[in-house]
Amino acid sequence: MTKQYDADVVIVGCGCAGGILARELTDAGLHVISLERGPDISSDEYAMDELKFPIRNKVLWGPQDEPRFTWRSDDRKSTERVITGWNGWGPGGDHLHWGAQSWRFQPATFKAKSVFGQVENGAIIDWPISYDDLEPFYQKFEERVGVSGDHTKDPFNPPRKKPYPMPPTIPIYATRHFVEAAKAKGYDPFPVPGAINSVDYDGRSACGYCGFCQSYGCTVEAKGDVGLTEIRKARQNPNLEIRFHSRAFEVTVDQHGHAEGVKYFDKNKKVHTITGRIVIIAANYLESTHLMLLSKSAQFPNGIANNGDQVGRYFHMRDITQLIGLFDEPMNAYLGPTPRWAVNQFADDNFSPEEYGEDFVMGGNITGADQNGLAGQPIEFTGAPTPEGIPNWGEEYKDFIKQAYTHHYNSRIYLTEPPQDEKHIDLDPKVKDSFGLPVPRVTFDWHPQTSKQLAFLRQRAYEIYEKAGALQIWGGELGDPWVLNSHAGGTTRMGDDPSESVVNRYCQTHEVDNLFVVGSSSFPTIGAYNPGETVGALAYWVAAFIKEGAKKGNLFH
């Protein structure tokens, strides 16, 4: 007797990767049930409200007062910090609050071990796929979500068959000021590609240059995200069912060790089980790893697809540092879309550190002129560091804020953290969340080369500020390693060798052939660029593989 399933495919997570997979697979005629832990959200609920969204994190839509993970610097220590708050709940996930920078990774990133070699205590490997494999799927992401840019202005642009579907947005005065100084230093700054409509596109309005981008949902839908694009269109297909307020906590297996379905809590904490021929975990890297470690069974006592002890290993995260410059004229950097212009000369293999007397590998990029903080609005600016000699309270501080808010701009310095075997995620033995589940524990600290990278790139940015005539320059310190951002991966990494990876080149787990893990957790390395577009391209790549299997009558189980 043929076994009956609730769906052909069960997808955990309805963010960037999960939303793309949902549309692609339902368009191919497969019945998909998507589990989303957050509420259903529409753009009618967005507002230009700094206190509500970036300050109180309402844009994340999840609870901000319960443990999400714990942190320790190395595995010889017990838990050092308990971190509360959640990321990206609702259709679109982290895309709901992203800044919309839409980079392609460089070809060298996919061959990191071959190109850059190994670092001390490092675990760098080559990806099992190449840039050429993903190139058509990068293009698909750019067209589906809507990306503006001009690759001809970047001398280090990776090969591409088509231009961006929209021209770049118009740089504001602060950005033009930064660009002139960077050019005077001999660099070739160019517009950062961004999922921001520079013109009306696919039924959504062009950008109005209000500046409410990162940490906000766009009130006119000019910021492209998978929730507004792929998920919105997928929901018109009767093949898709999205179950909101559904917190997955276990991937179940049958007696043969195949993935059978998913157990989840509803908003009343009642347990449900759903079955599928294929299970795809497509959550944030932390939650994907957490779910796998929680999914223990007789066949997988250490978590599903983890008999090789690879789930949670090789965690790495990019530091994002902000260098601030103060000028004698208004810059009003808070205006305009978040993606600005970049100096790409010092990223990945675009340069040789040895020529500068440096011994780090890979590199990073520098953008400007950015607003300080995530959203760039005035309340958040009061949390910025002050230059030497300026107190952070009192009348003198108030006078400084009045001038500096409108007369400053930022450079963001994006570093490259190498994966290391000893940096990992497991389950905390003591701390539990409100569902009674052990929270993930992150064991991580910066590699010694990261400080070298920062010192080098900070000096390059500092020199641009000097050329721009900055009155004061400050900031640019290495971030705290317990403040996780969405630029991380490695914990379910892809590879050809099951002894040092969790999934294969199609994000299919080595140990369970009908279980896939799609997202930045599958990245062996991240490189100098924001990972969002590569998450999307990878989701299209995996969807194509599953669709081809379905055509042949093979749903891997």
Automatic annotation (TrEMBL):
InterPro entries: FAD/NAD-bd_sf (IPR036188), GMC_OxRdtase_N (IPR000172), GMC_OxRtase_C (IPR007867). Residues 422-539 form the Glucose-methanol-choline oxidoreductase C-terminal domain. Coiled coil: none annotated. Keywords: FAD, Flavoprotein, Oxidoreductase. Gene3D superfamilies: FAD/NAD(P)-binding domain. It comes from the Bacteria. Residues 176-296 form the Glucose-methanol-choline oxidoreductase N-terminal domain. Belongs to the GMC oxidoreductase family. This is GMC family oxidoreductase. It comes from Ornithinibacillus salinisoli. The lineage of its organism: Bacteria, Bacillati, Bacillota, Bacilli, Bacillales.
